[in-house]
Amino acid sequence: MAKWGEGDPRWIVEERADATNVNNWHWTERDVSGWSEETLRRLLLGDGVTGSEGVGVTGSEGVCRVTEVSRLEGEASINNRKGKLIFFYEWQLKASWTGTTNSGIKYKGSLEVSNLSDENDPDDLDISVSLCKDQPNTPLLDLMKKDGVQKVRKVLGEYVTLLKSEFSQGMILPTADGISPAPRPAQSPAPRPAQSPAPRPAPSSTPSCSGVRIPTCSFSLKETFLTSPDELYRTFTNQEFVQVFTHAAAVVEDRRGGKFRLLDGNVSGEFTQLVPDEKIEMRWRFKTWPSEHHATVSLDLKDRGDETELRMECRGVPAAEEERTREGWRRYYFEAIKQTFGYGARLY
After folding, report:
1. Which H or E run includes 111?
2. What percent of the chain has a predicted confidence (pLDDT) above 70?
3. Which of 17, 20, 204, 272, CA to CA, is 20 to 30 A from 212?
4. Residue among 92, 219, 65, 214 at smallest CA distance from 147
5. HSE (CB half, 13 Å, CA atoms) of 176?
6. Phi, psi for residue 295 in degrees, rounded to 5
7. Cα–Cα distance, 252 to 241 (Å, whole number)
8. By percentage, how much of the chain surpasses pLDDT 90?
9. Where are the alpha helices (DSSP H) in the chain?
10. What is the pLDDT of residue 27?
11. pLDDT at position 213 over 90
């Protein structure tokens, strides 16, 4: 315990000459309400400049489209507390929609969302759809209640994704050792020095481009993230999310056979299987590995209530690169994701 008058050293905020908080013991807040209002309107109504299509659905009865956002009330902000990003948003919105039957008859209605907030997933949103009082019943109402509501959920989910990717850069400041959270691996740990021969897992042999066979090995990891499986799935497969936690430009094609390239080109590969919110499989390689050699990486996501358990299996890693690869996944993926998005520890 600190002496009277000295202060508890755990609560002392150390700063450099440039006023940087070297221990991340600070609270940084950014109001993004204005940006949120603009983005929500663009996503719901469409924008010819950015290419957003807005909410529109087509069925055998005709077409329906959201035409106006008549009420949008709420706020949104991003907070950085002790190196953890916390997103707050709460919105209530009301919009008008217009339906046109195949014969050209027009109908008008409204939709309301009362609980768009950080406490609710898109699937949990209460979205009500109705016709205006003077409108007769029409099959277009059922089209909006079914397909229209799903489209609204989708674009509101896009808003949350954009919120977490657009404003995360710069919210985490350097720590005492001068290294920012989730640093890019300009220099990865050197391979372990050679040791006297010792038993190893039975190596498989994978040919490099020169035809030389190299010994390979496998390893597994398990991590727990304080988020839902769908959020964690998007963190690995959404290009904007990947760019946020790696702090660098990336290419991520979230489809089977889609390529990815991140961390300044040090990591690349392609997705071989994607089961939304459940499983990700990929061919993965580090830049310094023998040319064209890939490991097989499998990520299984399990819902554990208010957290998600991730089990990773990595097979076909060059034996000399085992420790480096294992540490790289822990540091540049798992720890970076937890530190950037606040998935690592509860705040009380």
Report:
1. strand 106-117
2. 74
3. 272
4. 65
5. 6
6. -95, 165
7. 10
8. 50
9. 33-45, 139-143, 149-166, 229-237, 239-246, 322-328, 336-341
10. 56
11. no
Structure tokens at 40: 């929500």
One-letter amino acid at 217 equals C
Residue written as token pair 């907030």: 117
Tallying the residues shown for the chain, one arrives at 348
Q: 47 burial class (0-12, 13-18, 19+ CB within 10 angstroms)?
A: middle
Quick one: which of 210, 189, 212 has its CA closest to 327? Answer: 189
Could you tell me the pLDDT band of residue 47, with boundaries at 50, 70 and 90?
A: confident
Confidence label for 50 from pLDDT (cuts 50, 70 and 90):
low
C-alpha–C-alpha distance, residues 91 and 115, integer Å: 6
Specify the DSSP class assigned to residue 5.
T
For the residues 118-136, what does the mean pLDDT come to? 88
For residue 181, which of 311, 344, 301 has the smallest C-alpha distance? 344
Provide CB contacts within 8 A for 264, sequence distance 6+: 184, 186, 248
The token duo for 151 is 């489209």
CA–CA separation, 50 and 114 (whole Å): 27
Helix (H) or strand (E) holding 164: helix 149-166
> Average pLDDT, stretch 117-128?
87
Nearest alpha-carbon partner for 168 in 347, 343, 345, 346: 343
